[in-house]
């Protein structure tokens, strides 16, 4: 029998997947932990209502960043991975176009948030005191979006080790500076420190991105970059619309609940529940980051065997992770609630829904990348639109149940989306030529 080392050395896909996963996990830990650490400190120092204020404002920042960059990021990762070897000139123009579009979009969105902060806080959120914090985060949108698109380009080049090192540096800056800013200047200080960390991240990522492009022989080009506009209509626009439907839907649902008499407390509780989801899906989402360029290459080569191998590795890895975190939360979940100064007897049902929904999401995440990787972007948009509509409608009908109603609506939406992803994956793989499958001996 061949040894495991021999098997791994003979499987390029498994080797790339394993190394990419290890480096991505190392690099993402600190970045993902920062919001959770900040939430814990706010709950202890300022109370659950302040968690609600932080949650609504941070959700606005994340939603605005997604709106400015996610569609272009997916386009850049997918197509730079596809063209890096076969057509370096096109890959360079795609990188240039991605940077130009994200810079322009993030500036416009940041200015809009700053200008309409009072209207957003008073009319939409019905919390006038949040207007000041919205103005504070408006410039952070720009540096956060620029950092994201640079990382997306590196991801398309499968520079997982470089991304990991950059994330460790930026994550260290966040963990060191955000709590200090929170301690001395409250929520204003925490957001200011967060913005400085993103700015530092953008400044150190830019030269790393340029070096990676040069190493692959890809000349980044801004002149003529817009000649790649068909990539925008085919990939970025549907991905952008999907991001509008996906991430900001959390913000929409919080606006439904935040106006209730105890709205800030319920939003704070929901935000803490989402920190648990973020913790549980931390590793599965990294698996997805590794699989996107590999799936894109497999579909680009019309290689059904490679697509099935990558999906099998991604889903299998995520299901093992999901089983582990469900077991851990069943045994030690009360400690997590105590960490946020919550009552386990009162709030445990909310977090159990989140735990089991996260396990389901973990298994479905690799399937969610099939529409992007196979080129069916508009189909992926339609699936995401269904998820968004289900979540919003469910929250509207369950709004009197506060945070519990929101997590129930979210779980239902994910359940329906998972079933649809399974059906579409069967369709997409069936459309991939079977000639790439190995012939029987």
Write the layout of secondary structure elements.
Layout: H1 4-9, H2 12-45, H3 48-83, H4 88-115, H5 117-124, H6 131-137, H7 140-156, H8 160-215, H9 229-246, H10 248-258, H11 263-280, H12 282-300, H13 304-339, H14 344-368, H15 370-374, H16 377-397, H17 402-431
How many structural domains can be distinguished in the coordinates? 1
Overall morphology: globular
Number of helices: 17
Rounded to an integer in angstroms, the radius of gyration calculated over CA atoms is 21 Å
Which segments are poorly predicted (pLDDT under 50) over 5 or more consecutive residues? Answer: 6-10, 435-441
> Could you estimate the helical fraction of the residues in percent?
over 70%
Order of H and E elements = HHHHHHHHHHHHHHHHH
Mean pLDDT: 80
Largest sheet: none
Structural class: mainly alpha
What is the β-strand count?
A: 0
Strand content: under 5%
Calculate the terminal CA-CA distance, rounded to whole Å.
Answer: 19 Å
Question: How would you describe this protein?
Answer:
Mean pLDDT is 80; it is low at 6-10 and 435-441. The chain has one domain. The two termini are 19 Å apart. The chain is 85% helix and 0% strand. By secondary structure, the protein is an all-alpha fold. It contains 17 helices and no strands. The radius of gyration is 21 Å and the shape is globular. α3 (48-83) runs parallel beside α12, α4 (88-115) packs antiparallel against α6 and α9 packs parallel to α16 (377-397).
